[in-house]
TrEMBL record:
Originating gene: nrdI
GO MF annotation: an example: FMN binding
HAMAP family: NrdI
Protein name: Protein NrdI
Role, per record: Probably involved in ribonucleotide reductase function.
Length: 146
């Protein structure tokens, strides 16, 4: 089971992913960092950064540009099996919207949304859900995930 995630300097997503305990790779934060290229099917964990634009009526860009760049690589995109999005419920209908956009564009299921760094219950639900559905999602289960 591979988790690929993006996390900004506040590192909420990083802390959530670390609690999951699955092998994980991070999409680089800075443009000059070497791009990440994955070699096995993965679940993407992505925070939302639209700023609640659909409430304010502005132009919404909920998916971080670093994640768009990563998914613009057709090889990386071909290995994406599911998306989990982070956010903040203060953003109302835009809560976790990055997951809706990635799911629609890449045609993968949006399997879970959570707030900030996630609760213990979020962690348990995602751990159990991914293990139970790994085969159906086309994810590899190895010893580290058992
Ligand atoms: C500028 C900014 C815009 C945000 N826009 C949204 C949003 O539209 N919807 C949402 O659910 N969360 C939004 N958030 C909340 C982040 O998704 C949340 O804080 C997340 O945990 C950040 O993860 P990170 O620390 O790993 O980058 C926004 C946060 C910031 C700082």
């Amino acid at each position: 089971m591979l988790i690929v995630y993006f996390s900004s300097a506040t590192e909420n997503t990083k802390r959530f992913v670390e609690k999951l305990g699955f092998p994980a790779e991070r999409i680089p934060l800075r443009k000059n960092d070497a791009p990440l290229r994955v070699e096995e099917p993965y679940v993407l964990v992505c925070p939302t950064y639209g700023g609640g634009a659909s409430i304010s009526g502005g132009n919404t860009r909920p998916v971080p540009s670093q994640v768009i760049r990563f998914l613009n690589d057709a090889h990386n995109r071909s290995l994406l099996r599911a998306v989990i999005a982070g956010g903040n419920s203060n953003f109302g209908t835009d809560f976790g919207k990055a997951g809706d956009v990635i799911s629609a564009k890449c045609q993968v299921p949006y399997v879970y949304r959570y707030e900030l760094l996630g609760t213990e219950e979020d962690v348990r639900i995602v751990q159990e859900g991914l293990k139970a559905n790994a085969e159906e999602l086309g994810l590899y289960m190895d010893k580290e995930c058992a």
